[in-house]
Structure formats: structure tokens, C-alpha cells
Design goal:
Blueprint (H helix, E strand, L loop, with lengths): L12 H11 L3 H8 L3 H9 L6 H13 L2 E6 L2 E6 L20
Antiparallel strand pairs: 1-2
Helix pairs in contact: 2-3
């Protein structure tokens, strides 16, 4: 069983499914952006396999470059879509400690 998200650079299977839904992406779409197999995405999102943290962070990063924002408030993990900065990620001149949250 997949562990729950526990830090700023983690993501739950439910957050991944929700982020894909907001972007109208299939498992195949996400896998293509990651350069990984569709079975990796399917296994992670079903909770059937514990993925290496680097691969989870890569998925999270792909979503964030498309405007997905992750929240972890009071035990409730969520996602939303922001149009600000969509497709750009964080620019080097805008990096600060607040970007780590």
C-alpha cells in the first residue's frame, strides 16, 4: 500500500489522479511527459506499488509546470489548477524559500 504524502515534495495517488483530471490527461499522457511506462503511473495511482521518491517528485514537477498546486492542510491533501505561471515552472529569478512549500 502506498504511503500518504508527508512532505512538500511528495504526492498521494489520489492527488495524482485529481491533477490528471484537472488537466484532462490520461495515464498515457502523464507517462509520456515523464518518459516512463503507463504501467508505472497506473501502479502508483492504484497504490499497488511504492514508487521511488525521485519518480514521484518528477510527476509532481510535471504537474506543477502545468499550473497544478498541491495543498496539505490539516490532514487533507488536495490539488487545484492555477493559471498563473502555467507551463513555466518557477523561474530562477523567482526562487526563494517560499517555493519549497
Amino acid at each position: 500500500m502506498q504511503a500518504e504524502a508527508s512532505g512538500p515534495n511528495t504526492m498521494t495517488p489520489a492527488q495524482s489522479r485529481a491533477a490528471r483530471a484537472l488537466l484532462n490527461w490520461s495515464e498515457s499522457d502523464l507517462a509520456g511527459k515523464l518518459g516512463l511506462g503507463e504501467d508505472f503511473v497506473r501502479n502508483f495511482e492504484s497504490g499497488g506499488r511504492e514508487a521511488p521518491s525521485g519518480q514521484i517528485e518528477a510527476m509532481r514537477s510535471v504537474f506543477m509546470t502545468q499550473g497544478i498546486l498541491f495543498s496539505q492542510d490539516g490532514g487533507s491533501d488536495g490539488v487545484c489548477l492555477s493559471e498563473q505561471g502555467r507551463g513555466e515552472g518557477t523561474r530562477v529569478d523567482a526562487l526563494n524559500t517560499e517555493n519549497d512549500r
